[in-house]
Description:
Strand order of the largest sheet: 1-2
Largest sheet: 2 strands, antiparallel
Order of helices and strands: HHHEEHHH
Structural class: mainly alpha
Number of helices: 6
Amino acid sequence: xxxxxxxxxxxxxxxxxxxxxxxxxxxxxxxxxxxxxxxxxxxxxxxxxxxxxxxxxxxxxxxxxxxxxxxxxxxxxxxxxxxxxxxxxxxxxxxxxxxxxxxxxxxxxxxxxxxxxxxxxxxxxxxx
Length: 128
């Protein structure tokens, strides 16, 4: 389920953190589900165990997962994780819209681009 992109400029641990967070938000990884051990996941992905450990530490810091000593790491049951992520994502969208307006992009083009993105259609620029 977790596929890392060697072409991605982000560090591997950030890709791993983002992918696990995405799977949690999509409820592919339900609350209380146990994650693979650090060594197991590192072996499966072909990465250094320290990379997986760093991703797990960041996920724990963000309260996406929690660890039980001697048992492993589990998906947090905290419903606030989803709400916090939703708010952060909307904040990013607001900031992007604001940047577009400051760059001279008109409101209709912004709305059309968002609508195209939601429908999976090609925007005007992509169609050219």
